[in-house]
Amino acid sequence: MKNILIFGDSLTAGYGLPASQAYPALLQQKLTDEDYPDYHVINAGLSGDTTASGVHRLDKWLPQQVAVFILALGANDGLRGIPTRETTINLQEMLDKAKRTWPDAKIILSGMEIPAIVPGRYAAEFRALFRVLAIKNNIAFVPFLLEGVAGMRHLNLPDGVHPNAEGQKLLAKHTWAVLKELLQKAPPQL
C-alpha cells in the first residue's frame, strides 16, 4: 500500500463535517473510482494548526511509509497575520524533513491566499510565498486550495470560513488535478 499523507489544518480535517465529507476522504474515493487500488490517503489534518505547530507535529508522522506528501498548512498563519518570513521558514523546514525522511516521495504544496482586501503588502506577499517555495523546491503545486470556495457563502459553513460538503468537493477537485499527474497505476494483471 502506498500512503498519501495530507498534512494540514481544519480545511484538511474537514472541520464541522463527518470525516467522510472532508477532501482527503473524497480523494480516497476518487482513487478507488479511477482504479488506483495501491494508494491509501491519510488525513493528518488538525484544526487550528499553524506552520509553527506543524513543524513539530510532523515528527509524529515521519515513521510512516509515505509515497506522496501533501503539505496543506498556512491558512491559520494568514488569518493571524504571522509574518510571511516565519511562515516560509516553517514550510521549508517541513519540506526538508519530508525530503530527508521520504526521499522517493512525491511532494505537493497547497497554496493559500488571504483576501486582497487586507491592507498593505501582506496579502500579496502571503500569496507569493507558496509559489516561490514550490519553484525553489521543484515540487508540484496547487495554486490556491480554496479557489472558488473562499468567500462563497453557499460553499461554506455558517462561519463563512470553513468549506461545507460542497466546498470540500472543490478542494478535492483542485488537489486531484495535481495529484493524478504524480500517481502510477498498477500494471494490469494478465
Automatic annotation (TrEMBL):
It comes from the Bacteria. GO terms for molecular function: phosphatidylcholine lysophospholipase activity. It holds the Pfam family Lipase_GDSL_2. CDD domains: Lysophospholipase_L1_like. InterPro entries: Ester_Hydrolysis_Enzymes (IPR051532), Lipase_GDSL_AS (IPR008265), SGNH_hydro (IPR013830), SGNH_hydro_sf (IPR036514). Residues 6-170 form the SGNH hydrolase-type esterase domain. GO terms for biological process: lipid metabolic process. This is Arylesterase.
